[in-house]
Design goal:
266 residues; alpha/beta; 14% strand; binds NADP nicotinamide-adenine-dinucleotide phosphate; Aldo/ket_reductase_CS; NAD(P)_OxRdtase_dom_sf; EC 1.1.1.346; AKR
Length: 266
């Protein structure tokens, strides 16, 4: 399973705004779109994709199962509903969005239900998001590491999440970095501004290039054509070892996605 390194995030984007972002993204060359049941925008994402004329088999579409749908009786029906909204027979990747709040359900139960969704052809691949090391160990025990196509976690210069990213990769599992721009905060950082200026690019491109050079997939979001375009061009930025080290020093454990049902982080 090849996950395109640069995807388009859609969190917070609703109605016409998400239609415009996905339409423009597809025009510019994005071929990987990241949505989720809880974003409330799967129908609009599906419409934008259908209207774009881009062939389904050249696209990589991810959705995520919301916490309320983790039960064995709910997971597959909820994914079928997502597919109907997205106007697709199959998504490329389905993630468990968060471990069950308070671990009210065992990891093995929802990972097995997700594997069953794959066996039924509803999704080409399966994966996880916001799993701690302990959750990931249980997921591996349930379905095997080879079945887990990616773990999607928050990573940006201010939350580098090294322990979790390193453990995930030590199991042979690919990592996708979400909120790769720290929701725009990277633009204000003096060190990222300095590196950006030296390369004639923006701090956003520096943050994305830093993630790409470590082998992570990235899914930045934007409502602006110019930002969508420049984020895609981050793949052309070549940071030096010194740049990479300077950015590594910016880690300050600043977590942005931390809802009250989040697990106990590593
Ligand atoms: N699995 C999970 O639990 C989880 C959690 C959070 C997010 N995600 C996924 O990750 C995606 C990305 O995270 P995110 O959308 O929260 O944050 P993000 O991509 O880090 O940042 C988006 C923000 O940065 C701004 N921006 C984008 N490109 C820019 C550029 N080139 N220059 C300056 N500003 C720029 C955007 O504003 P403009 O619109 O003005 O460009 C927007 O305010 C989400 O959309 C979602 O798909 C997953």
């Amino acid at each position: 399973m090849h996950i395109p390194a640069i995807g388009l995030g859609t969190f917070r984007l609703k109605d016409q705004q998400v239609i415009d972002s996905v339409t423009t993204g597809l025009e510019l060359g994005y071929r990987h779109i990241d949505t989720a049941q809880i974003y409330g925008n799967e129908a609009e994402v599906g419409k934008a994709i259908a209207d774009s004329g881009v062939a389904r088999d050249s696209l990589f579409v991810t959705t995520k199962i919301w916490t309320e749908n983790l039960g064995r009786d709910k997971l597959i029906p909820s994914l079928k509903e997502s597919l109907s909204k997205l106007r697709m027979d199959q998504v490329d990747l389905t993630l468990i969005h968060w471990p069950a709040p308070g671990d009210a359900l065992p990891v093995s139960a929802y990972m097995e239900a997700l594997a069953e969704a794959k066996a039924q052809g509803l999704t080409r691949a399966i994966g996880v998001s916001n799993f701690t090391i302990a959750h990931l160990r249980q997921a591996i025990d349930a379905v095997g590491a080879a079945e887990i196509a990616t773990q999607q976690i928050e990573i940006h210069p201010f939350l580098q999440n090294r322990k979790l990213a390193d453990f995930t990769r030590s199991q042979g599992i690919h990592v996708t970095a979400y909120m790769p721009l720290a929701y725009g905060k990277v633009m204000q950082d003096a060190e990222l501004q300095r590196i950006a200026q030296a390369h004639g690019v923006s701090p956003a491109q520096v943050s994305l290039a830093w993630l790409l050079q470590q082998g992570f997939a990235i899914i930045p979001s934007s409502t602006k054509r110019s930002n969508l375009e420049s984020n895609l061009r981050a793949a052309d930025v070549a940071l030096s070892d010194a740049d990479m080290q300077a950015i590594a020093a910016l880690d300050r454990n600043e977590r942005l996605a931390n809802p009250d049902f989040a697990p106990r982080w590593d």
